[in-house]
Amino acid sequence: NIMSGWSGAGAFSDGKLTLSEEVGGNMVDYLPREEVRALINYADSIYLEHGAPEKVHGLNDPEVDRIRYECSKYNIKLVPSPVRHMGTEHAFIVLHNMYKTLEASGNFEFRERTAAEDVLVEEGRVAGVYLKDAAGARTLVRAPYVVAAPGRGGAAWLNQVAKDNAIQTLNNEVDIGVRVEAPNAIMDHLTKHLYEAKMVYYADTFENKVRTFCMNPGGLVSEEHYEGGIAVVNGHSYLDEKLHTDNTNFAMLVSTRFTKPFSSPIEYGRYIAQLGNMLTGGGIMVQRLGDLLKGRRTDASRLAKSTTEPTLKTAVPGDLSFVLPHRHLTSIIEALRAFDNVAPGLYSGNTLLYGVEVKFYSSKLAVGERFETILPGFYAIGDGAGVTRGLMQASVTGVVVARDIAKKSE
Fold first, then answer.
1. Under a CB-based contact definition with an 8 Å cutoff, are residues 357 and 179 in contact?
2. Which of these, 14, 24, 25, lies nearest to 85 by C-alpha position?
3. What is the distance between the alpha carbons of residues 392 and 25, in angstroms, rounded to a whole number?
C-alpha cells in the first residue's frame, strides 16, 4: 500500500524531505516566501521529533556551487535543495511514531481500509463525508470541516468531487517520462554532494522542459499501482547502505502545459500509462538506450548483455517508441545527451529506461491562500489537489489547514 492508507500516497516511496521552498510544489504562489520557509522548518522539526535522521544532504557544501557552475556550461539549470533522506525503511518508523503520537491524543480515530466516497453539502457548505468500509457498508460522518488529502493515487477521485460541487479545476503541467537507471559510478560525483541532483533542460527540438526528479542513489526501480489497474514506474532507496544496489535511478519527466479546450490532464497521463501496460501484459517496460537510438526493441537476449543490471526484475523488455509520444521521446533523448556532459557515461547504450512514469498531480483545484475551496469548510491539499509535488510541501499544507481550522474553531 505505497499509494494509499496510513503513510501511503508516496511516503513509503523513499521518504525524501526537500527543505527548500523552490522544490516540491508551488507554495510561494499561495503564501509569502518567508512564511513558507518558516512552515518548512516547523514541519521538518515534527519529522525530527518522530525519528527522522539528523543528516541533511547538500547543505553548506561548496562543491554544490561547482556542480551548478559546471551545469550552466551546457544550458542545464541545477536547482540545489537540502534533502533529509529518511529512506524507505525509516519512513515506516517515522510515520509509525506519528501514528502513536496521534493515537495518544485521545481525539484521533483512524479508519483503516475505508474509502471516502463523496461529501455531504447542506445549506451551501460542507457538512460531512460518506465513507465505505471494506465490507461495503456505507456510513455518513458529519463534520463542520472536511480536508481532502488523497495523494496522487486519489487525484482522479478528488477531481470528480470538485466537478460534483462546482469547484473550479485548473490544468497543471502534465509530467510524463521514464525512469532512468545507470551505474552509481556515473552519478556518484553528483549524488554524494546533492543526494538528489535536480536538473532542468529545455530540449533542442521542441523546447519542452525536461527535468530530473526523485533521484535514488544505490536505489531500486519499483512498480506502483493505481486504482483501475494502472501500473507505473517509480523508484526508492533505503537509508541503510547495506541494502544499497550498484545503480542510481531517477525520473526524467517532460512537462507540458495544455490549454483550452483540453481539460483532462489526469486522463491523458492514464492513457499513456495504459499503452505501456498494454504492450507488457500489465507491467512495466524496460529498454536499453542503445536499442532505442537504433530504432529496435530490447528483447531478453539484448537485455542480458547489458552491463547495467536492472533492479526491477519483473520489467518486460520492449520498445518505448510505441508508447511515448514523439515529442516526449525526442525531448528525453536530447536531455540525456546534454546531461552526459555533467554525468559522463549517462548517454550510454547500456543506460536503462523504464516506462511509463507519470505524475498524477495535473489537475489543480482552485483554493484560497489557506487551501479552502469555494465550498465553505472543504479544504483540498497535497499532491492529489495539484497544490504540491513532494512530501515536505504536502506536509506544510496540512499544517496551514490545521491552524486555519483551529483558529475558526476558537
1. yes
2. 14
3. 9
